């Protein structure tokens, strides 16, 4: 097609110029485009068709062709649905929205919902168009605007248009009210502070007979209750009305308009049940008001169709979440038990999921009656059978629920089933299953031997999948079971001979052989028939671990340490052990090399201390808090629960040869020190951690030591750090001081006051070196009288640069609850020009502001 244009010239009106301009052909229809694309045999052919059509659409957009803009945008949306880029049609959607034709607006709003979102500034250009359309005289145009706002409106757009939405929410038109309610939900999600604007409009929403309005109204009320506790309290008065609506749905006869598989409007029923669950949570009156209707729904709903199962599932969730009656909870659990027998795997999975979390909720409630636990336990065999299901999701839910069902009465039977499952399950389940077995055995073990056998069974079955703390926990269990040492070391030795691929098992076995190797060789075992093992055979096994390619660095470290410990247990193989340790002194593994070098030094320089250092480990107390207990329901049983902490009793530290290594200066003065670095011993309220500096003179005006301050935990922990700084940035009025200045080494103290405790003085030590050579291996130590508490944090470095090129800093925190004059003795150790130096000094001239 061509267009002919005639134009007269100024010189001669009889002469005409003819301009011939080509025009774009009419674009193909959307139906033809779909038919053409479906004929493509390959993806490359399809891409070629799409690119050709996109080029034609772009050309039409450049020509500002208003006739076919709607058709082109529709085709562009289809391409977008196929996954091809269509962003170049965004502005064309806005032009269609501004059109006065309904067909154009419909495609324009659809394109805006698909191609635009709130992250793009282009969508703000349509705010005015939506506002105009919300006030349009045609309800269908208003509906389009409401749908678009509810789909992709940004917070700015929602603020601007919330008034129009609230106005339409009050209209009598059911078509607009249901769309306005959904738009209001989106507005509340984007701008929660506008929630109160819609509160007056919600008064009459539940009186509507139209199911569409009822459905969207319940969605709106649910959103408001979930986001605001005040709204939740306000809408609890609607529980009787919601119960009446739900009852009418159940009792109403056949209604073709709302019937789905013989059930009246199941979608509305599910929404009402969800809202009732929110309203009845932690509220006795609301829960009481809905108990009868929940029982009615649970007993009258047809379960032969999936629609009925969906309603029953929501009913069960509601019963489990509110303060329902005991009989109603039993009914809910029985419904889930029937779900477990259903052939539909989806139904079985959701029932297991609900039982898991419902049972956990039951056991966490102190007032839950025993009947609820027994109701779940009745379905235990069905749940255990689900462990054999082929569906992965069902097996995982069944495993989680099985561990939740374990208690002291069924621990043996349940562990038998779970250990069998651990043997045959996929690797993805082994880690979680092993952790669950460890936790259940620790909590409900009937005897220590059963506990040890169970953990060893897990290590031999899934040793590579156990959690990191399994090894130290089992070592602690074995150590504390004194009467089981001979039995345990014999069992572990047999397991070690059979398999050395399970690293945690090897580590525990090596540790036990190193500790109790003498019991293994002696052949004394009352629990089972003893085995005859020689010292050389035990060493052969441990040396085999050292050279095995399957052994990790940590495992080799366990084995080498076990061999070293056997030097004090075995009498005839000490020379062989020396040779093994000497060989690994040149190992390429740094960890093994360091251990071997230290052990060699122990043989050569400190052989007289070797028996004391390698003596058998004492019973290890598990770290726990002590205090009053209360009775708490746990899987149907009662057991004590820890409520609060109390002080550990003072335990005197024995003085022996090994302690001489820690007694730096001698003396008897008791000094309490709390360290942030890994401590060697626990601090007791009046005990002695380390006698760092010996007798500290307290003559003169220093008063006699007062009673020890009682604290439930170390006062220097970072309590309150989230709410305020640990100490003041500026120590107002506390001048710095020079604590030490000798041989080029200068120690300065600056002071700050703790914000968390006014009785804590925070002292920063600054060490500087004015000599020409740096001071290495610098160690600063301090002690105070026993009426104080002292904490030394880690230093910034152990090298003091020469010529005052830098300083080493260290934080010292002193608790002075009695406001006594502060005195401190410091010990300085460092290496300077190849010589090791050590000096002591007393610091008695602290500024009064630092301790008053």
Please give the share of residues in helix.
40-55%
Radius of gyration: 40 Å
Number of beta strands: 15
- Morphology: extended
Total number of helical segments? 32
Q: Report how far the terminal alpha carbons are from each other.
A: 102 Å
Largest pleated sheet: 6 strands, mixed
Q: By helix and strand content, what is the structural category?
A: alpha+beta
Average per-residue pLDDT, rounded, comes to: 77
Task: State the low-pLDDT regions, or none.
Answer: 1-21, 356-371, 624-731
- Strand-residue proportion: 5-15%
Strand order of the largest sheet: 7-12-13-10-9-8
Organism: Huso huso
Family: Belongs to the adaptor complexes large subunit family.
Subcellular location: Cytoplasmic vesicle membrane; Endomembrane system; Golgi apparatus
Main location: membrane
Description of the structure:
The chain is of the alpha+beta class and 852 residues long. It has a 6-stranded mixed β-sheet with strand order 7-12-13-10-9-8, with no helix packed on it. Strand 5 and strand 6 form a beta hairpin. Helix 12 (239-251) packs parallel to helix 14 (284-300). The protein is extended. The relative contact order is 0.03.
């Amino acid at each position: 097609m061509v267009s002919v244009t005639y134009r007269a010239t100024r010189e001669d009106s009889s002469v005409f110029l003819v301009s011939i301009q080509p025009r774009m052909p009419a674009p193909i229809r959307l139906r033809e485009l779909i038919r053409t694309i479906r004929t493509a045999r390959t993806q490359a052919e399809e891409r070629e068709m799409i690119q050709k059509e996109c080029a034609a659409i772009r050309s039409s957009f450049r020509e500002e062709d208003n006739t076919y803009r709607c058709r082109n945008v529709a085709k562009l949306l289809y391409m977008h649905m196929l996954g091809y880029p269509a962003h170049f049609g965004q502005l064309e959607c806005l032009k269609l929205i501004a059109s006065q034709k309904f067909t154009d607006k419909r495609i324009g709003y659809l394109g805006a919902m698909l191609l635009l979102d709130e992250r793009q500034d282009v969508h703000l250009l349509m705010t005015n168009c939506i506002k105009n359309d919300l006030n349009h005289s045609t309800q269908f145009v208003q509906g389009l605007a409401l749908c678009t706002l509810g789909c992709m409106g940004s917070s700015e757009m929602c603020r601007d248009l919330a008034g129009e939405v609230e106005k339409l929410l009050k209209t009598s038109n059911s078509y607009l009210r249901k769309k306005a309610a959904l738009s209001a939900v989106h507005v509340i999600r984007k701008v929660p502070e506008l929630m109160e604007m819609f509160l007056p409009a919600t008064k009459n929403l539940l009186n509507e007979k139209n199911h569409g309005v009822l459905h969207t109204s319940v969605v709106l009320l649910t959103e408001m209750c979930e986001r605001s506790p005040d709204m939740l309290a306000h809408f609890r008065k609607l529980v009787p009305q919601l119960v009446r609506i739900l009852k009418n749905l159940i009792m109403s006869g056949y209604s073709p308009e709302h019937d789905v598989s013989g059930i009246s409007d199941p979608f509305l029923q599910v929404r009402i049940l969800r809202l009732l669950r929110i309203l009845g949570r932690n509220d006795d009156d609301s829960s009481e008001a809905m108990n009868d209707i929940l029982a009615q729904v649970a007993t009258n709903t047809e379960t032969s169709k999936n629609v009925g199962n969906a309603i029953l599932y929501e009913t069960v969730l509601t019963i489990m979440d509110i303060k329902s009656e005991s009989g109603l909870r039993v009914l809910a659990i029985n419904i889930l038990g029937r779900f477990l027998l259903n052939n539909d795997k989806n139904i079985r999975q959701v029932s297991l999921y609900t039982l898991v979390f419902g049972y956990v909720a039951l056991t966490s409630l102190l007032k839950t009656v025993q009947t609820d636990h027994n109701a779940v336990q009745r379905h235990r065999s069905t749940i255990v059978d689900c462990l054999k299901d082929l569906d992965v999701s069902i097996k995982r839910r069944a495993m989680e629920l099985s561990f939740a069902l374990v208690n002291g009465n069924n621990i043996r039977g349940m562990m038998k089933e779970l250990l069998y499952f651990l043997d045959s399950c996929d690797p993805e389940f082994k880690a979680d299953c092993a952790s669950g077995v460890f936790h259940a055995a620790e909590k409900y073990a009937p005897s220590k031997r059963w506990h040890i056998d169970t953990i060893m069974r897990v290590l031999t079955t899934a040793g590579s999948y156990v959690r990191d703390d399994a090894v130290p926990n089992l070592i602690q269990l074995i150590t504390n079971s004194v009467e089981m040492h001979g039995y345990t070391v014999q069992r572990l030795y047999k397991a070690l001979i059979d398999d050395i691929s399970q690293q945690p098992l090897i580590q525990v076995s090596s540790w036990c052989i190193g500790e109790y190797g003498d019991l293994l060789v002696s052949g004394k075992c009352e629990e089972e028939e003893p085995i005859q093992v020689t010292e050389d055979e035990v060493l052969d096994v441990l040396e085999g671990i050292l050279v095995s390619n399957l052994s990790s660095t940590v495992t080799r470290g366990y084995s080498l340490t076990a061999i070293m410990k056997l030097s004090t247990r075995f009498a005839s193989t000490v020379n062989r052990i020396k040779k093994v340790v000497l060989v690994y002194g040149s190992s390429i593994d740094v960890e093994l090399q360091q251990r071997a070098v230290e052990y060699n030094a122990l043989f050569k320089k400190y052989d007289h201390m070797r028996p004391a250092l390698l003596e058998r480990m004492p019973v290890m107390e598990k770290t726990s808090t002590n205090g009053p207990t209360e009775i708490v329901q746990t899987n149907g049983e009662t057991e004590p629960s820890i409520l609060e902490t109390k002080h550990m009793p003072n335990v005197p530290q024995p003085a022996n040869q090994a302690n001489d290594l820690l007694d730096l200066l001698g003396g008897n003065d008791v000094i309490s020190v709390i360290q942030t670095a890994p401590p060697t011993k626990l601090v007791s309220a009046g005990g002695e951690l380390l006698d760092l500096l010996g007798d500290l003179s307290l003559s003169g005006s220093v008063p006699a030591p007062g009673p020890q301050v009682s604290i439930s935990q170390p006062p220097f922990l970072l309590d309150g750090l989230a709410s305020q700084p640990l100490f003041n940035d500026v120590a107002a009025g506390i001048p710095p001081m020079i604590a030490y200045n000798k041989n080029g080494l200068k120690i300065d103290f600056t002071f700050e006051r703790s914000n968390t405790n006014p009785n804590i003085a925070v002292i920063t030590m600054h060490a500087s070196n004015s000599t020409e050579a740096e001071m290495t291996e610098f160690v600063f130590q301090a002690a105070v009288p026993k009426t104080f508490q002292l904490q030394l944090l880690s230093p910034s470095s152990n090298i003091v640069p020469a010529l005052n090129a830098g300083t080493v800093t260290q934080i010292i925190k002193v608790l002075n609850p009695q406001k006594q004059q502060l005195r401190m003795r410091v010990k300085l150790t460092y290496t300077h020009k190849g010589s090791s130096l050590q000096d002591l000094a007393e610091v008695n001239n602290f500024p009064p502001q630092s301790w008053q």
